Amino acid sequence: MARFQRRRCLTGAMVIACAAVAAAQSPAPPVTAHPALIRAPRHTRTQHGHQGDPVNVAFVGSEEELHRVLAAAGWYAADPITLATSVRIAADVVLRKPYDHAPVSNLYLWDRVQDAAFEQPVGSSPRQRHHVRFWRSAEVDAAGEPIWLGAATFDERVEISRTTGGITHRIGADVDAERNKVVTDAHRAGAIGGFYWVERFHAEHEGRNGGGDPYRTDGRLAVGVISLQR
């Protein structure tokens, strides 16, 4: 079972309030790790069952709260994959046109496709972007809240997949930087009360996703707590 560490904060430019910190007037009650984390999967899967991107970030709260947090943090909800959106993202990459709500490819956790996905474009086209997919846990905590497990990565460029031969985005290797960005953006927007770490969530600190892209991680999961006072 992974070890939980509740009072460790990001350092340097990434300064985030710890999950045990609430309003100055009244201290927060101790934060208990969400029960769904005990048996949570560590990696997403592709539609063919190959290991996908690592799970590296999560939020505890309702679906409405998740969308409000990401919107406040400056992230756009991704459009669903349709013929029209697929044609548009391909055209906008070629023509270097912005598409803030560009669709993301499907990955699977708990044998189902992501429940929500968000992104932040970089530059003038969907060629580069920060993005994160989320899956809602079936298990809830004592307050009746699910946890949303997420896989945050950065799309560096468009290329031919080394495993499928199709058109895909290549992700950046530093997935921890993307994990930190999601939580930091939410904190700076005042959208979460704090966070806690799940230490040693990943036993392996290097790997490759379903497209064959290498990644590295310190093995920790960051869990944002949308509301500390249930």
Descriptive overview:
It is a single chain. With 230 residues, this protein is an alpha+beta fold. The protein has one domain. Helices cover 16% and strands 33% of the residues. The protein is built from three helices and 15 strands. It has helices at residues 63-72, 83-95, 175-188, and strands spanning 3-5, 43-45, 51-54, 57-60, 76-77, 108-109, 112-113, 116-122, 128-140, 146-160, 167-171, 194-199, 206-208, 214-216, 221-225. Strands 1, 4, 5, 8, 9, 10, 11, 12 and 15 form a nine-stranded mixed β-sheet that branches. A two-stranded antiparallel ribbon has the order 2-3. A two-stranded antiparallel sheet has the order 6-7. It is globular and about 40 Å long.
- What percent strand? 25-35%
What is the number of E strands?
Answer: 15
Derived from helix and strand composition plus strand pairing, the structural class reads: alpha+beta
SSE ordering? EEEEHEHEEEEEEHEEEE
Mass-distribution shape:
globular
Q: Which spans of ≥5 residues are poorly predicted at pLDDT below 50?
A: 3-29, 85-92, 163-167
First-residue to last-residue Cα separation: 26 Å
Mean pLDDT: 77
Question: What is the count of helical runs?
Answer: 3
Q: Which assembly state applies to the chains in this document?
A: single chain
- How many separate domains make up the residues? 1
Helical content class? 10-25%
Biggest β-sheet description: 9 strands, mixed
Give Rg in angstroms.
17 Å
